[in-house]
Write a structure and sequence with these properties.
The chain has 413 residues and is α/β, with parallel strands linked by helices. The protein contains 14 helices and 15 strands. The relative contact order is 0.16.
Amino acid sequence: MLGPNLLSAALTFRYRKRYLNPTLVNADNKFALNMLLYIGGVLFGSNIGVDIGSSSIKAVQCGDGRSRKNIVKAGEVELPRDTVVAGEIRDVQTVSDVLRILWKENKFHGKTVTFGVAGLQTLVRQVELPWEPEDIFREALPLRVSKDLPVDPSEMVLDFHPLNERDVRGVLQQQSLVVGALNSSTENAASAILGAKMRSRRADYSPFALIRASTYCDPDFVETPGAPEAGEERPCQVVVDVGAQVTNVIIHDSGRPLFVRTVNAGSDSVTRALADQLQVSFAAAEYLKREIGLGQVVPTSLNQELFNELPNEAEKVAQQVINAMAGSLVQVSRESVEYYLSATRSVSTITRIFLAGGGVLLPGYLERISSELQAPAMFLNAIEQHASARVKNNPVVIDPKYSTAYGLAVKVK
């Protein structure tokens, strides 16, 4: 079972300490007021998840009580290029404007949200440190892991998720996944949400939200309590999330996170390579990529308007480029999983691969990664499994692009 939303406690502690000095909270200090709402948002409740990606913003709203896993609303609005780059918000005002459009078009109930942080603005490390109570462990993290960080600990929000404990020469050691996010990434997201006249309830690490989503969508999910005993082997599940600019490879054991790797490459790298090779627009290259797919037969008919833009033999050249570039994304996923499996003795086999993000919709991608990892693969179709009829019948809503937003919205089991 996946534990509490990561980063929430650390952010609450930091913002209370830094921003909630009474002398700072006044009508002219909007950011301090937002931090009050950030911490106090729990009083309002929130079942809306917001995924601010490189190409679009997606939001999902889930029900309450027994219907907590059911999706009642979902929507997406595209972002102008370079507004968000590899998880970094570079234009806060534009993100605020797009959020307002998203709310207006989809009529979400409420304005208190959980947002995700991911991409190159975050890091994850596995550490082993002497056991301490949770609050003391969290507060001491900056000092204890400072040597493993690429920046000064004061520039990051740090939190941890315990994996297991073991006795080393009479000293109880705790193995944990430490997750960090640059202050700028969380503050920019919170500021953008405030600019849209909304409240930030909490931040969550997006790969962990994907783990949560996969447990709700796994038809064979069986909750496994606690960490495995010494020598015990358990099956694991893999989530591969291919966004426009970033790919996440995540391994978990029935919701217990084991491994996360973030790669600075996504589906846009395939499109850009096509556009450069064929000397065509990004739109034409994107269309061709989705029509041909990975290892697919070249289609006999293409959109005539875009087809006129393409040079002779473009389809065959495109197929070679797609196989090379998209194939490399599959290879990165396979190598990441193989690295983890070779480094641990607690995992016996992969039972399922979940595919999330718009990049996995490339024709042939599911079949290729299933073959490479020798395990059954499925799209993380939260909307297909848990959405209301009204959401399912919306032709604009495409799975599995909403996987992260769903994981942010749905409550922990």
